[in-house]
């Protein structure tokens, strides 16, 4: 991958934001290869994403950041400047189910996910061999049913140690403690096995079977303190029929889960997602 | 369309149902062009649909029905025998929104819906001209906000007069009285403008926008006394993004609504739907 | 619809295009509600689309156009400035098949297509009544099998008279003469009833049936002198099975044809399409 | 998985096939849990698939086969009787690309593919470690560019030794010799990385990029002597845009390839596919 810089910003809407941000980039020689802007009329908020060719910016990202300081104050920008050569550290948490984990590992090894995976954390030993074949450290952290705090303390410590930029719950099946959710705000990506807000809570495929729906789905979202209520990143569905039992729904759902999770993670890694309230702006 | 007979049955599951039903058809020379059978293990119930070439059955459908009598009793069959030359009478009910109505009328005129449309009933005058251009009687039946009974009595009378086999609520926007729902059990097809069970109730597109979903959908279902809870016939979805406002969701949703409603109606007209409890078996 | 201005441009890629175009907009007070930019690395070409709130530009579109003159020369811009209150004139051409025409008319009447439809031209009388119900002039222009020139001369005259900005071939079934294609370059939108480049030419549904494909599709494209080879605007598919005969493919295909044609037309009307060589950039 | 028997047949169409086949099953006490029948009018051919609960047939499958002998001759049946406890032996052939292989292995280990995988054959060493982690023998068989016969002789020997019922080309990238195609007729499943018949031959994603299509796809088919021309089992597509370069098409296509290949293999394993000429009947 060639080096790119990304400028991600959102702020109260007003005249001239694109031009003034663009002006800082241009006066440094920055070559914009892709850009998108969105104005949300309801909240009067503005969102913007620029992708800039790194070799066109001899000044470097720190100098660019410095030059944005005054604009940041003036326009009240939430601003991120990203250097794509600094790979994001993605910690994956998994349980016994292997489909999402296995899928992510293959994508990563094939070069289709632009990140490092410094470790995998699981509350079961099952996937250790596979993870280690990929050359990734595997940590077995037991979450005791009646005493979850010690396990989650260890999880938090690992997340800190590995300097995780992002935590992916690849069908992890455990609910993160509220404090950890808050600490990792908009950094924890979950895949929920239903087309939210349908079938919130436990055993969504059983719920779907009882209701007799003709499509089932999966939802990738940021984790918040409200279970299954976080900002939605991506969703998809697959057709089912009367002849599909719960087991079939589970099996068919896996394909959607792993695809949607990988798409959501990719959008996160490419800094295409801006969260505003409980909704996401996603620049495709 | 050539004449076909259809045998639709469901009953408690046991050995020999296909063979014994087939035996009645075969001894009369019936040429089966298509058949499908489904056994629901959970409820131990059996479902079957045979399509038989009409010209292979010189005995006629009444004689065939007579010959099925003893089997019907013995196997406790719910049984329908249909002659495809007796077109179903489909009464369409519409409001001001034209997309579903206009779509159904064009399909019907193009010969893609094998039914008669003896009349259209609407609580608004708007669509009279279009309906009448298609040569179909148009009845304007006002449903008074504070006194709905007289209007619905008139609706019921029209449905009776026209001997409706099926009533299609093409975004009718009014809730049918409970008694009418019961009288027309599994004969009233509604299109709900959400991917049920998400966003039950009023203004689903507003609800969808607030939740920030990435797909919106529509659901075609039989109307029961429980609003939006009837057996689902078909569903579909369309992708939306952060840049779609409620108006855009409404517009994008229309495409799904009309397509799903037409598909559901077609399945009904081809006797492909068997209702069991609150779920449908649909032989494609 | 509120008044918006749209700035659509493409040019050889270089540093500063977004900023300099934005600068012209901003110094006039222009409020950008939406913008997207794309750089094609292979051809080193840049594409850009700005949507600007009309009431934020007291100078008016002519003055804005004047101010862009020098930038246009300097950056070698292909540039369009559009005032959304000047509705595009869309002439629809149809044949006997009604599904696309009927669908477009309903969308237009419902306010979902932001254009005028000054007339419909058809080589058959069948749809006159429906078109006239919508209050739109209907012209029956016969294309003689052995002498097509007079008919097409009349078509060209009508297109000129009505000052058509866009001509939609709604399953028109006739091939436009080469000279007309050239004259109306990137203004004629066709819907082809296959997933191009599969099944180019005649009777694509018959071809699809013979090949035994499991999905069929439709393709909306700009018409060029090379039949079925023009720049693709949109495509979609629908699932079919072994039990679908050619007639069923035709019927199922209609849903895709009308949906894809309407989506393509909408993208054209919103000035989201930039043609480059034989490909399209479509800002969603 | 519980034991089931499957009866798969096709034959010239005539009156009474379902009934007479059903009669044999019923007189032995066979409990039909699922059945589907299809009559192809064009070729006047009949296709049928019965799924029978094994424990309802005390006579066993050999006795059932014996009892079908006379019917087989009389009705000219192509007939297969399958015992689901005899797992099919599926040999996977792969190259360097891992996405299909990795996906199939995970599905298999998760119990979602009802087969044995006695070995994986590859012309590269890359995937040995992963395959062996799953406990499956890995054979590295080099296909020399200028002398392919010895390599394919070894492949054939392995296929024979492992008594392969099915060979899956999981992006194998080599063309099997004609004699092997014929020997393994309707037993070799390939995944082609285009929506056939579009972009037959080499580098379909490059072809797709040049043509500017808006959807790309993949096709699962049985391998025949005619490259990319065999009977199609399944296909699917994914949306792409102007901003997707060839590399992106390759990446996006992988998701479709692996999903479609797995679906096609599953249909094969469940004996849902009947080949007739160059087309497939697939009982879902």
UniProtKB/TrEMBL annotation, chains A, B, C, D:
Belongs to the PurU family. GO terms for biological process: 'de novo' IMP biosynthetic process; one-carbon metabolic process. It comes from the Bacteria. Catalyzes the hydrolysis of 10-formyltetrahydrofolate (formyl-FH4) to formate and tetrahydrofolate (FH4). It is an enzyme of class 3 (hydrolase). It comes from Pontibacterium sinense. The keyword Coiled coil does not apply. The active site is at residue 228. SUPFAM superfamilies: ACT-like (SSF55021), Formyltransferase (SSF53328). GO terms for molecular function: formyltetrahydrofolate deformylase activity. This is Formyltetrahydrofolate deformylase. Its EC number is 3.5.1.10. PANTHER family: FORMYLTETRAHYDROFOLATE DEFORMYLASE, FORMYLTETRAHYDROFOLATE DEFORMYLASE 2, MITOCHONDRIAL. It catalyses: (6R)-10-formyltetrahydrofolate + H2O = (6S)-5,6,7,8-tetrahydrofolate + formate + H(+). The keyword Protease does not apply. Pfam families: Formyl_trans_N (PF00551). Keywords: Hydrolase, One-carbon metabolism, Purine biosynthesis. Pathway: Purine metabolism; IMP biosynthesis via de novo pathway; formate from 10-formyl-5,6,7,8-tetrahydrofolate: step 1/1. Residues 6-93 form the ACT domain.
């Amino acid at each position: 991958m060639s080096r790119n810089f990304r400028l991600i910003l959102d702020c109260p809407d007003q005249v001239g934001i694109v031009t003034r941000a663009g002006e800082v980039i241009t006066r440094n020689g920055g070559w914009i290869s892709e850009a998108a802007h969105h104005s949300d009329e309801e909240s009067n908020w503005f969102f913007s994403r620029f992708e800039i060719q790194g070799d066109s910016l001899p000044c470097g990202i720190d100098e660019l950041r410095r030059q944005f300081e005054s604009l940041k104050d003036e326009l009240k920008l939430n601003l991120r400047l990203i250097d794509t050569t600094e790979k994001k550290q993605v910690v994956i948490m998994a349980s016994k189910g292997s489909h999402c984990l296995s899928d992510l590992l293959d994508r990563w090894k094939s070069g289709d996910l632009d990140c490092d995976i410094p470790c995998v954390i699981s509350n079961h030993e099952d996937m250790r061999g596979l993870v280690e074949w990929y050359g990734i450290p595997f940590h077995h952290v037991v979450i005791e049913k009646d005493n979850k705090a010690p396990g989650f303390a260890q999880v938090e410590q690992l997340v800190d140690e590995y300097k995780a930029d992002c935590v992916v719950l690849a069908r992890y099946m455990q609910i993160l403690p509220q404090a950890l959710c808050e600490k990792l705000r908009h950094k924890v990506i979950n895949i929920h096995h239903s087309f939210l807000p349908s079938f919130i809570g436990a055993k969504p495929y059983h719920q779907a079977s009882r209701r007799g729906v003709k499509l089932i789905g999966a939802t990738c979202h940021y984790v918040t303190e409200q279970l299954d209520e976080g900002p939605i990143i991506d969703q998809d569905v697959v057709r089912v029929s009367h002849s599909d039992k719960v087991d079939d729904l589970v099996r068919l759902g896996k394909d959607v889960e792993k695809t949607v999770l990988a798409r959501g993670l990719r959008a996160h890694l490419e800094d295409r997602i801006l969260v505003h309230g409980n909704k996401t702006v996603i620049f495709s």
